[in-house]
Design a protein that fits this description.
single chain, CNF1/YfiH-like putative cysteine hydrolases, 7 helices, about 25% strand, five-stranded mixed beta sheet, alpha/beta, six-stranded mixed beta sheet
């Protein structure tokens, strides 16, 4: 992605005990939060970074945006990742700081301008995707950089997909304003309705103006790969969190 990299963690390689084994990156889920903090150090070191280089947000399944600045990180503990406030997308105007969002089924979406290093890390569950969090993040990045969305690159990480994600009529209704695009992300089979969250992210990026050729989709399903990924739905909340990162 030019001057940037999109990185998605897995559940492998950390020190968390079952059922969070083993690379859980969310301290609030651990009986001993220091375990997840050590996992963060390990994961960041594999990328030649430190947790103190990383900005996070308190995710609320909404459409709020925050801009992360280098100054915001300098004022905090350099040994810890920095939680900047409530939002579901973080943006930056240059190649620093690193941006991360935490997921365990929701779609981690990374958007970047390869020329300037500016970009966004977006947390998109069904509520946020339907409400336009991805489109809002792309539009905000366009405003920050004065560059066209067609010049941006994007990556979609592991998330819950297709028949693994049965949903109710409220989800169908939430995507009503997508018109024909709704048919590509919601599918009926017999009496059930399922949502392909990865496809929803893909369609949202195109709706926002990102060129199809500039979108990379991992295609990975969190629900179906218990060996690699955490899944809130599959594990009935007894699960860890992974990071989707913009480096």
């Amino acid at each position: 992605m030019g001057r940037t990299r999109a990185v998605f963690s897995t559940r492998i390689g950390g020190g968390s005990p079952p059922p969070l084994d083993s690379m859980n990156l969310a301290p609030h889920l651990e009986a001993d939060p220091s375990i997840a903090e050590r996992n963060r150090v390990l994961f960041c070191a594999s990328l030649e970074r430190r947790p103190g280089d990383v900005a996070l947000c308190s995710q609320v399944h909404g459409t709020g945006l925050l801009v992360a600045t280098p100054e915001a990180l300098e004022s905090g503990d350099r040994a810890q990742a920095h939680v900047l406030g409530e939002a579901d997308a973080l943006l930056r105007t240059g190649p620093y700081p690193c941006l991360a969002i935490q997921v365990a089924d929701c779609a981690p979406v990374i958007v970047a301008d390869p020329e300037t290093g500016a970009g966004a890390a977006v947390h998109a569950g069904w509520r946020g995707a339907a409400a336009g969090i991805i489109e809002r993040a792309v539009a905000a990045l366009e405003q920050l950089t004065r560059r066209r969305p067609s010049e941006f690159m994007a990556a979609i990480g592991p998330c819950v997909r297709s028949t693994s994600y049965e949903v109710g009529p409220e989800v169908f209704d939430a995507f009503e304003h997508w018109s024909k695009a709704r048919d590509g992300v919601l599918r009926r089979a017999g009496g059930s309705l399922s949502l392909d969250l990865g496809m929803a992210a893909y369609v949202a990026l195109q709706r926002a103006g990102v060129a199809e050729a500039m979108i990379i989709d991992s295609g990975a399903c969190t629900f179906s790969r218990a060996d690699l990924f955490y899944s809130h739905r599959r594990d009935r909340s007894q699960t860890g969190r992974m990071w989707g990162m913009l480096l």
